[in-house]
Amino acid sequence: MSLPFLANILALLFSFFVIGALLGAAFSKPFRKKIIEILRLRRLLLDKSVHNPILAPGGSPWTAEAVMNPAAVVLDDRTHLVYRAIGTDGVSRLGYASSAKGIVFDTRLPYPAYVAQNPRNFSGQRRYSPVLYPSGGSWGGCEDPRAVVIGDRVYITFNMFDGWDFIRVAVISIAKDDFAAHRFGTWDGPYILSRPGERQKNWVLFPEKIHGKFAILHSIAPEVEIAYRDSLEEVGGAEPFIESWVGARDSLPARENTWDSFIRSAGPPPLKTERGWLLFYHAIDEHDPGRYKLGALLLDLDDPTRVIHRAAAPILSPDEQYENRGKPGIVYACGAVIRDGTLFVYYGGADKVVCVATAALDSFLDTLTEGSRSPSLESHDARTS
After folding, report:
1. Which of 69, 165, 180, 300 has the CB geometry, 3.0–4.6 Å to 334, for a possible disulfide?
2. What is the CATH number of domain 46-384?
């Protein structure tokens, strides 16, 4: 037997051995489990629209610097956005756009839908500066709206910002008919919900009353906290201001063995599903600092302070060019709706533009409930998230 022939035989046997080992690994239970986990997480990711960004800064001075972080509601078979716009004067105002299908927004008003009265006198000397005023480049006005429809009114919570020593949460409302007809001179409010002397932001309303009361989700870190009020207009008067946790979220201990090391705030208002209140939230991974990502969890329908499922990975990350050209590494969602079984999440990219991402709701919820963390971890999360 010649040496070349023997070498070929040995090479062939070695190839069979390698292939067999690879096939054995591929069909082993741990490997199959890992592949299934990866596929499940892929199903949990939101699909970013090819039309992104769906809204960009406009030619008007009040929208010239940025448009971002939109609230969203569905009325009369149209999706309505109320977005934060920043002008050349550094003031944040609320703009309006609507769409028949939720992707292409063919109606966009050339004037603001709402302008907050600044708590302090505005001298007119300040200008847009993303360096000097890191709150999206804005030094004051109404920021980051979240909208719900309760009864015959549209309610919008927003951050009333007038410098870092004055950040409070306010709410305005308007009749549904007036909102749909763009009669924006009929807003009621603003009414301030948070206590004076505290830095508070990013509170959201549940889209229906719970136990006959307005439910305000005002903290998800270090605990899930909900305040109940008979009337939003009487907060601070007949009813006390809402007492919430005070402090910097990034000063809390990092959550271990998870992507959401530092949970920042709720995103859009909770969406009611048969399986629980679907809530999106913003968080930062200590191993990937400087990048906001979006997570998802389910709250118990009867006790919404209890987390029953939490996604094991972020569902939206700032990986696209339009999510980094501006303030890099930012996806920031303030609006979400469900239309014909499809979940639409509206978010700001790079503190500059408005974007949308979608998912089939049932598949998304299947993945969230099947692939979430164990019940023991969830019970811990309900206390510490």
Report:
1. 69
2. 2.115.10.20
